[in-house]
Amino acid sequence: MSSLVVPSKLGSLCLKYVNVTVMDIERILLSCSVLENLCIVGGYHLTHIKLPHSPLELKHLEVSRCPHLLCIDILAPKLVSFIHHGDPVGELNIRDASFLSELTIGNGLYIGEVVAPACDSFSKYFSQLKYLSWSLIVNQSYTVSKFNLGIDNPRSMKNLTHLRISVKSNHDESLLGWAHLIEASPLLQKLHVKFCKCLGFYYTSQRSIVKHRGRPLMSLKTLQIGGFQGQPIDIEFATHVVENSVMLKR
Fold first, then answer.
1. What is the dihedral of CA 175, 106, 83, 85, to 10 degrees?
2. Do 59 and 82 touch, CB atoms closer than 8 A?
3. What is the distance between the alpha carbons of residues 68 and 88, in angstroms, rounded to a whole number?
4. Pairing between strand 60-64 and 12-16?
5. Reading across the β-sheet that carries 12-16, which strands appear in turn?
6. pLDDT of res. 147
7. Which residues of the chain fall below pLDDT 50?
8. pTM exceeds cut of 0.85
9. Closest Cα to residue 75, out of 53, 90, 49, 103?
10. What pLDDT does 122 receive?
11. Residues 6 or more apart from 44 whose CB is under 8 A from it?
């Protein structure tokens, strides 16, 4: 796309597995004055998206599966939603996103910690989020260290009403570390959790069920669990949520 030409009035653009460069993306963002929706997936050679001083019109941005992406640094005062799946971006700075209310973060094909880097970049916006989605790999068999098992002392999620957590695991881990985030969300009404075993790896866990003494969940009305296997990871998490929910209807 070295000779890329885009309409200046383009409002939405999806680039999936297109060989875009840093200059291509910069040209798109600067020349498309009304671009509100941008999706970049599989940009193998993309290394930077850096326009920290030019206010963008973007409202919805997805940047996923760009393994060599080192930096996203943009000024996006109208951004409402951001999606990222894949390797953590070394420098991820979304500036002045006072309207950001929907955040989706996931591992994609990357095996390792994605929660901590995302918190470093977005914790300043946690209090304004209404929707938060995590799509995670938590499998100790891949690495000696543990990862993606929760957030310690999260900032208040005072506007969060909908939380999704999708987990690939070997069933031997625990998701009780995510209880802290749920308890930090006083308005949370919907909790969707999906469990999925890692491909090529399955066994029945022998570890004991752990009970976590938590605070009452005053607003939760809907708990949806998919992929329930009757393993400690899903039994103890579901038990914790049900036992501590005051208004749970279904």
1. 180
2. no
3. 10
4. unpaired
5. 12-16, 37-41, 60-64, 81-85, 102-106, 131-138, 162-169, 190-197, 222-226
6. 79
7. 1, 144
8. yes
9. 53
10. 96
11. 19, 66, 67, 68
